[in-house]
Amino acid sequence: MHGVRQEMVLRKYQQDILSDVEANEVFGADKMIVSLCTGGGKSLVISSLCNQYPDDRIVILTSITKLVAQIADHLDEVGIEYSILKAGMEDKFDAAKRVQLVMEQTLHARDHIDLAADIIIKDEGHLGWNGDRYKNIVKSSGCDTEILFSATPYDQSGVVLDGYEIIQGLNTSEATAQGYLTPADTYIAKFTKDVDFSDIGASGDYSANELDGVINNDSYNEAVVEAYRKLPKRERRSICFVSSVSHSDDLAAKFNELGCKAKSVHSKNSEEARFESEGLIPEDDYEVIVSVNKIAIGFDDTSINTVINCRPTKIKSLYYQMIGRGLRLHEGKDVVDILDCAKATLEHGFYDQVFVPAANKVEAKKTHKSMQLSVIDYIIGKDDAEEVVRVNLSGVEAAKKSLEGDSSIEGLKAKFELCNDIRELLDLLELIAPIASSHKFSKNFVAPEVIEYVDMGGSFKAIKTRANNILKQGKKLNALKFFPEWLREQSWGR
Predict the structure, then answer these.
(1) Which of 96, 103, 95 is nearest to 72 (CA)?
(2) Would you kindly state where each structural domain of the chain is located, as residue ranges?
(3) Could you tell me if 187 and 89 are in contact, meaning their C-beta atoms sit under 8 angstroms apart?
(4) The domain defined by 179-353 carries CATH number 3.40.50.300
């Protein structure tokens, strides 16, 4: 294929990425991952890299159909000659071309095709980066350099990809401040306070079948629609994410039943093909599209101004990818509304919080916990008048300050969740005990033993967890006085 050469003006951060890739290569890095937020112009940077290395054979990999067309458009814009390897496009393949745009699945299936490469560029690099398919492609190509691109450059645990040098591009907060993304307001549906995901199995992520058992019911679905209708009045183009085909169908039906025209889109109906090929909501009069997360990546309808999250997830990258579907700029779109019906803000923090990948899983767990904003529960609990509550970072900071003089059970609970000092914890327990239980807790009896244990390196977290469990179970708080026996029975410090 032949592109028509055009002069493309790169934004400063895009040019910086190109410079950083070159600098890293000069200093011996052969495996890099470029971190660039959704809407940051990733396809243009990829295409520009092909111009930056005019003598190198380059294979651009993607596993998402829609991204083939997006990248091809930018290759045309910068005047790159290229070939496409994709099922159904056999006439576009020319093994002699210097630049190859390749669907991973197609190359894997065509085991008779060997594509030699000096550089492999992998789009959505966090997907399958450690899988056999990608490893085999790299090995057979004989490439010297791997360059991955991702808005979420870490694995499912929030850990940096092993062996890859991170090149930091623009994050969501910076892109919004500079006018490259649409700002968003986060609304939390108040009814979700009573939805419990703690007993749902999670091997990597929540079980979709078990999630269905908890949230795919008339009560939850109706509450979602009612919360949606409480958002500020505006003309809406909405996308709603769920975790299963059955929930997609049932929730779309509930939207329609309650007067919001909706369409369910998933692999079991014909609509998904339209989405994947066009990357847009069909020009039908649908207000809400309900879908499983398959269209979270590569879906590129910039008119989306509302994201409804009904897809609880432990995977931070999936959370950011879903929210990112609504942030792209579009004429007349001044703000995006995020409706959280999945406790995602509590799980992962706000959409524009800067997340720094951890070095290992232990550090990732600590980071994950620090991102949990327990004070949000306090904000929601105090606002009895609203069914959806708008929250943001500044509001959280203000709420933290207001907590200082709040002796209500909601305020004490929030302080308990946020405290990180053993003496403060014991003070709070003494205040909470008369409200939570008929048994008073005498900190004077047990405090010295507890404080001594912590001062000697014992686990504060374990004490806090134990105290919280006692509170939740309505047990006598003075059971803590048996601390030495309890200590001997536990695996402390883990």
Answers:
(1) 103
(2) 12-171, 179-353, 419-489
(3) no
(4) yes
Residue 358, SS3? Answer: strand
Provide the residue type at 66 as one letter: K
Instruction: Kindly report the number of other CB atoms within 10 A of residue 230's CB atom.
Output: 16
| Region of residue 134 (left: phi > 0; alpha: psi -120 to 50; beta: else) | alpha
The 3-state DSSP class for residue 36 equals coil
Q: How many helices (H) and strands (E) does the chain have?
A: 20, 16
Distance of CA 165 to the CA centre of its chain: 21
CB-CB neighbours of 384 under 10 Å: 7
> Helices 42-52 and 65-77 meet at what angle, rounded to 10?
50
- CA-closest candidate to residue 429, choices 462, 464, 380, 383: 464
The CATH number fitting domain 12-171, selected from 2.60.40.150, 2.40.10.480, 3.40.50.300, 2.60.40.10: 3.40.50.300
Q: Mind listing the pLDDT tens digit for each residue in 112-163? A: 888 999 999 999 899 899 999 999 999 999 999 999 999 999 988 889 999 9
The string over 413-444, giving b where at least 16 C-beta atoms fall within 10 Å of a residue's C-beta and e elsewhere, is: bbbbbebeebeebbebbbbbbeebbeeebebe
3-class secondary-structure state, position 439: coil
Mean predicted lDDT score pLDDT of the chain: 83
Same CATH topology for 12-171 and 179-353? Answer: yes
Distance, in Å, from the CA atom of 6 to the CA atom of 71, rounded to the nearest integer, reads 15
CA angle 433, 195, 250 (to 5 degrees): 170
Alpha-carbon distance values, 435 to 383, 427, 469 (Å): 21, 14, 16
- Side chain identity at residue 336, one-letter code: V
pTM above 0.70, yes or no: yes
> What confidence tens digit (pLDDT) does each residue in 426-462 have?
778 777 766 665 555 555 556 676 777 777 777 777 7
Report d(CA 379, CA 97) in Å as an integer.
Answer: 58
Between the alpha carbon of residue 360 and those of residues 155, 320, 384, the distances in Å are 10, 20, 41
Across-strand partners of 84? 101
Gyration radius of the chain's alpha carbons: 26
Residue 112 · residue 85 · CB < 8 Å: no
